[in-house]
Task: structure prediction
Amino acid sequence: MAAASARPVMAAGAALVRRGLGRQFSLAAPRSYSVLGSNPPPAVYCIGLNYKKHAAETGKPEPRFPIFFFKPPTTIIGPGDAIEIPAVCKPDEVDFEAELTVIIGKAAKNVAVEEALDYVHGYTVGNDVSARRWQGKKGGGQWCRSKAFDTFCPLGPRVVPAAEIPDPNNLDISSSLNGEVLQQSNTRDMIFSVQQLIAFLSEGTTLLPGTIILTGTPEGVGYTRKPPVFLKPGDTLTTAIEKIGELTNPVKAAS
Result:
């Protein structure tokens, strides 16, 4: 099974961003965006409470419409890169969230649910690392702040072409911490399918090539456990999705 290259897609999206801004889009220093290549994604969408059992474990009702927020490109790291816990986070708050990740392959706007998968370039494994204290009062109740710290979006180990995963809504998904499986589910438990998410996010909004969509996490996250489980320096987090592979990242304190 050959891995797809996301580089041409990311480059196309970056070119459209430059054109739209009317200026050169550049970074202070060159860097790699994991399996995405050297171009930052035009946007990183994340979906909250999109698994039935996860909504149940949090005590929240299933949403009527997708809940979404953003991560900045600076959160993205690749396989083997360290998740760094910043000094502003307490030892008992950084959590893990295994997520199927979608990469958009061509500009999508007002896409019908029935045609949504035609706009997918490929799929990879992601983890929406989250600082729970910042997700609550510390971040003013805005989820973006808690999930926007550097290194809080591991992606990899490869991009699988969309054609090789005809049904993204039936894939086993898991996360393990230091070899212990803590999340184990299947994407069929999602409240909103991949097609529905793309259709919803593209309503009146253009999803540029290279746009990333993290589609939500299943049950088993750390803060709902008794006792709670959080990431700490020295840990190893492995996120796995059927037909894509395993993404493994060490955890350390940010310098």
